[in-house]
Design brief:
With about 650 residues, the chain is of the alpha+beta class. About 25% of the residues lie in helices and about 30% in strands. It contains 15 helices and 36 strands.
Length: about 650
């Protein structure tokens, strides 16, 4: 069951509630799962209290979807009859889950918090919230009376917005037109909030590399392609010509796998990738070319073969690292388990045998190779902070944190305070990111935006009107953090977008949106030359070896990608300007990004028929083609307004 105990005004999200989730105690351990942590174990571990598993957390008002995991088995709340089928294409989630409707009952609401009143770029943003359907119109009243735009709608609320020239301080109230007349709300005097983040991030375009798959390897074996850091260094000229000025590397530390997500030594660069000298040389070349470096931190779990876990295997309860991991009971594995592990034969055969034998510790996605760390242990927290600071001191510019939604958010808040302010921190959070941004991460991998991409560009489940509501709802939820989100069309965990949409033209339409929308854009290695998906499991399909034969490249995609990156890097309006939708109808997206006297207009026709864009201003086409205000099927244009 869930119980709401109290509401309070929060300096970040406005109204938040203290909510207890609980269920009758069964099993050895339990976790709370939900769209607030991507239905992932690890972050919200429940405690026994009066014969029940229980946990309390604070949530912004709204409808939240949740479930429990008991001994690794997911179940809906047995004491809550309200359930819903929750579906997310982005991380392949589809299950019946429980519904928590969190509302104070206030018909209208505003609080001068970071997501309701803030300045970014040259604008000040004011947000107002009303129960769904209760406000016909809302006016922001200060020096002038301004009608607020109805920005977005979710299950409970309508969100309204006024975008003003940048203000240092405001005195204001709201006028609300309802079915029963006009009401006045509030008498506020406040300074708009300013989001603090590393300023260098705004003009960056990221390029994600799986080192093993990128350069030096030539034979296409999915287990190990032989790429390394030396190979990346030799291809910096390719990145420079593309316009890339930041890279994100998947884990480069000592591990037993090609992907590196099972770390055995966090303080050493993997020998398979060239070791310490390769890292130092790569770092030197990156800095010489003003290319920032983001590392991948795996702190939800370690490798089974990490020395700390091996010590637990050998010494059991006598190990000094016994509390470093989530051990259920000792021994953590049986003698038979170890015998199978050491036996000859293929890994496939051994994996099947090991799965049947089982193990006595929590692990990532029930994979024995990746035992889960005990994040309640202060030594684990110190260890994570030390590793992160160590590599920042050595020259890295930030971190992407793997399975961040499977680690308690307060741990990230605690570690954030120990790191340099200029380090860009993003977390892998595959769903609603509100509990993970601002005081934990500057932004997250923007899976909710990717979900909208899948539904609109790939599966055509959404029309432009629904797509707009989705992205504007994210804007209402995230406030200024949306400008720091790490936006992508694909990465190493999802299938390549080009393969999903099936054509160059459709892919470039999506890429044009990515490069002209709010947030930090990224390219996954090979996207720029048309690298497609390969066979194998869904998670492996995007991990093809990079093809360095220019004759095999899609030159059309390469040239447009270069131009889009160039536009993005040269336009402050695209980096930090206000977003204003002009037409979102059917398959037509028409919007503008503005900052000071720069106005960029973007049109995307994602349909089979020509669309009229209804532009009334004089403009210069920067990329794409517009014929007498008509946009051809499956095409886009980007223009600059002429003054």
């Amino acid at each position: 069951m869930y119980k709401t105990f109290a509401f309070r005004d929060d300096d970040i999200f406005g109204k938040v509630a203290r909510v207890e989730f609980s269920l009758p105690k069964e099993g050895d351990y339990a976790y709370l799962l939900g769209n607030f942590n991507s239905f992932n174990e690890g972050s919200f571990r429940m405690r026994e209290r009066g014969g029940r598993w229980s946990i309390t957390l604070e949530l912004p008002e709204g409808v939240w979807y949740y479930a429990f995991s008991v001994d690794g088995i997911r179940t809906a709340d047995p004491e809550n009859p309200e359930r819903s089928l929750y579906r997310r294409l982005s991380y392949k989630m589809e299950d019946e889950v429980s519904v928590a409707s969190i509302s104070s009952g206030e018909t209208f609401y505003h609080h001068p918090s970071l997501t309701y009143l803030y300045s970014f770029g040259d604008r000040t943003y004011v947000r107002f919230r009303a129960l769904k359907g209760k406000a016909r119109r809302v006016y922001f009243v200060s020096e002038k009376r301004v009608e607020m735009k109805k920005k977005a709608t979710d299950e409970l609320f309508d969100y309204f917005e006024a975008v003003l020239p940048r203000k240092d301080e405001l005195e204001y109230h709201f006028e609300i037109l309802t079915g029963g007349g006009t009401l006045e709300y509030g008498d506020f005097r406040a300074c708009p909030s300013e989001y603090q983040f590393p300023q260098w991030v705004l003009d960056r375009v990221f390029y994600q590399i799986m080192p093993d798959r990128f350069a030096r390897g030539g034979w296409k074996n999915m287990e190990d392609a032989g790429g390394d850091l030396w190979g990346i260094m030799e291809k910096i000229e390719h990145l420079r010509k593309l316009g890339i000025n930041a890279i994100y590397l998947t884990p480069l530390f000592e591990s037993t796998s090609y992907h590196g997500y099972d770390v055995t030594d966090y303080y050493r660069v993997g020998r398979r990738l060239g070791g310490e000298s390769a890292f130092e040389n790569l770092l030197r070349e990156l800095k010489k070319n003003d290319i920032k470096l983001l590392l991948d931190g795996v702190f939800h779990h370690t490798s089974f073969f990490h020395p700390y876990f091996q010590d637990v295997i050998r010494k059991g309860e006598g190990s000094r690292y016994r509390d470093f991991y989530r051990v259920i009971k000792f021994p953590v594995v049986s003698a038979e388990f170890l015998d199978v592990l050491k036996s000859p034969g293929s890994w496939k055969e051994k994996r099947e045998k090991l799965k049947k034998l089982g193990w006595n510790y929590e692990s990532f996605f029930s994979v024995w190779l990746m035992p889960r760390l005990n994040h309640d242990n202060p030594e684990v927290r110190e260890f994570i902070a030390d590793v992160m600071k160590h590599w920042l001191d050595r020259g890295a510019d930030g971190w992407r944190l793997d399975v961040a939604h499977g680690v308690p958010p307060e741990l990230w808040r605690e570690i954030r305070k120990k790191l340099p302010e200029e380090a860009y921190l993003i977390g892998e959070v595959m769903d609603d990111a509100r509990l993970w941004i601002f005081d934990k991460f500057h932004g997250t991998m923007n899976y909710p935006l990717y979900e909208a991409f899948l539904r609109f560009f790939v599966y055509r489940e959404m029309k432009a009107e629904e797509f707009l509501n989705w992205i504007e709802l994210l804007s209402a939820y995230y406030g200024p953090a949306e400008f720091l989100m790490y936006n992508f069309l694909d990465n190493h965990d999802v299938e390549r977008f080009l393969g999903l949409v099936g054509s160059r033209e459709r892919y470039l339409c999506a890429l044009a949106f990515l490069m002209t929308y709010k947030g930090i854009p990224s390219i996954y290695y090979g996207d720029e030359v048309g690298l497609d998906n390969v066979g194998g499991s869904p998670m492996e399909r995007s991990r093809a070896v990079m093809d360095w034969n220019p004759e095999e490249w899609d030159g059309g995609i390469l040239e447009v990608t270069k131009e889009l990156i160039k536009l993005r890097r040269n336009s402050k309006a695209l980096q930090m300007g206000a977003f204003r939708p002009l037409i979102f109808r059917g398959g037509l997206l028409l919007y503008e990004r503005t900052l000071r006297n720069e106005r960029i207009i973007v049109g995307i026709n994602y349909s089979e028929t020509k669309q009229h864009t209804e532009l009334s201003t004089s403009y210069e086409i920067l990329l794409g083609h517009l014929d007498n205000n008509k946009l051809s099927p499956w095409s886009f244009f980007i223009a600059r307004e002429l003054h």
